[in-house]
Fold this sequence. Notes:
Mean pLDDT: 96
Low-confidence stretches: none
Helix content: 25-40%
Largest sheet: 5 strands, mixed
Number of helices: 4
Distance between the termini: 43 Å
Amino acid sequence: MQLTISEATEVTEELLQAFQRLIPQLSSSNSPPDTVAMQDIVASPSTRLLLARSEDVIVGSLTLVLVRIPTGVRAIIEDVVVDIEIRGQGVGKALSEAAIELARAAGAITVDLTSRSSRVAANRLYRCLGFKIRDTNVYRYRF
Length: 143
């Protein structure tokens, strides 16, 4: 499989359609972003939207959040999704490795992510890439 990783730099119909297909595979409680939301994501200096393509079709994505805080550059991987038809073929690994390199180049010294324990394959991948489980509490405030 020929796989390429690139950063989304503009919102196209292809990108919007890909997210219409991919987001439901990631979350049953959140709708795919509309054009305005995608434009905000692509234009934001704090996010890098990485796309995986196979045979010119977007088959996965990952959002890398880079934020400057008083203790340094914070890098967080969010919303990793690979099309169910192509999972297990190295797409998540390629996206994650690209994000790690971008974070390193931006000056981050760590990269954080969270993953539900039910996502067995994803958790195995993250451990294989060198991610370690932190002894911390994750809190969420819901509106």
